[in-house]
TrEMBL record:
Residues 1-20 form the signal peptide. This is Carbohydrate binding domain cbm49 protein. It comes from Acanthamoeba castellanii (strain ATCC 30010 / Neff). Coiled coil: none annotated. Residues 133-163 have a biased composition (Low complexity). Keywords: Signal. It holds the Pfam family CBM49.
Length: 280
């Protein structure tokens, strides 16, 4: 009986160890820009990629972010400085193995030290503490400042929407975008102005979508400086949408977006959603 009990405990420990080893994630942090607001308040814009480096779907993570947050998107505050994945990501089962979730934030300082640390990773019912929970952990890549390292803020752009429906038989996909307004929605440096756009997808058809892509229409002197939850096709402005982000029939999906870069001396203003292609 004692031998059977010991073997059972040993098997449970081996299973737990194997589960922990296959439930891992890494962070890639980049400081996109920094500036001084009203000539006295420092700000920095960061982008963070949470990559599932394990063999199981990461169903949630717990993150710690150092500093006073001015604005944040694509993660949800738990308490104090701790954050988790957004609800829409939890509803689609988390981050599949080998894939990533990207979020961003503006912090009220101009430090170049990586501000985000991974506290724990959850795969199903298994929660694995991070072996290096501090922000200075070696597993967190050093941030890289963008070429526009000293921007000053500009007035937020007013919201706009550019829907492009593309019905085809039992399929339907509507992609719309809104220019983010308020603090952190737009800013500028000595050469360019930047605007964040949030994209929403709506499936108004009766069939489930299996593939989709969209093209962002911009002027020749504009560029897409950053994007999240979109997969760029080569060096074009066409982006594939991961299948797990495609909305179910009658549903919608948010959490996609990009940053539009426009030269200060340009007469170009804004962007729009161009062609939307999809398959059932």
């Amino acid at each position: 009986m004692k031998l059977l009990f010991c073997l059972t405990v040993l098997a449970a420990l081996i299973f737990s160890c194997a589960s922990a080893q296959s439930c891992t994630a890494s962070l890639n942090q980049t400081r996109q820009a920094s500036w001084v607001d009203s000539e006295q308040f420092p700000r920095s814009l960061w982008t963070v990629e949470i990559r599932n480096t394990g063999q199981q779907a990461v169903t949630n993570v717990l993150l710690s972010i150092q500093g006073s947050i001015n604005q944040i998107w694509e993660v949800v505050l738990v308490n104090d400085s701790l954050y988790r994945l957004p609800d829409w990501r939890l509803q689609v089962g988390g981050i599949p193995a080998g894939q990533s979730h990207v979020f961003g934030f503006i912090v009220n300082n101009n430090s170049t030290a990586a501000p985000v640390s991974l506290v724990s990773v959850q795969c199903g019912n298994v929660t694995v503490p991070s072996p290096s929970p501090s922000a200075s952990a070696s597993s967190v890549p050093s941030p890289s400042a963008s070429a526009s390292a000293a921007p000053s803020p500009s007035a937020g752009a007013s919201p706009s929407s550019s829907p492009r429906p593309s019905p085809s038989g039992g399929c339907s996909l509507l992609a719309s975008q809104v220019a983010r307004s308020g603090a952190g929605g737009s800013w500028s440096d000595n050469s360019n102005r930047f605007q964040i756009y949030d994209i929403t997808l709506n499936n108004n058809g009766a069939s489930r979508l299996t593939q989709a892509s969209l093209t962002i229409a911009i002027a020749a002197d504009q560029a897409i400086a950053q994007f999240w939850n979109l997969e760029r096709v080569d060096a074009t402005n066409t982006f594939n949408i991961e299948s797990f982000l495609l909305p179910a029939p009658g549903g919608s999906q948010s959490g996609l977006g990009y940053v539009l870069q426009t030269p200060l001396n340009s007469t170009s203003d804004g962007s729009s959603i161009g062609a939307v292609n999809f398959r059932c």
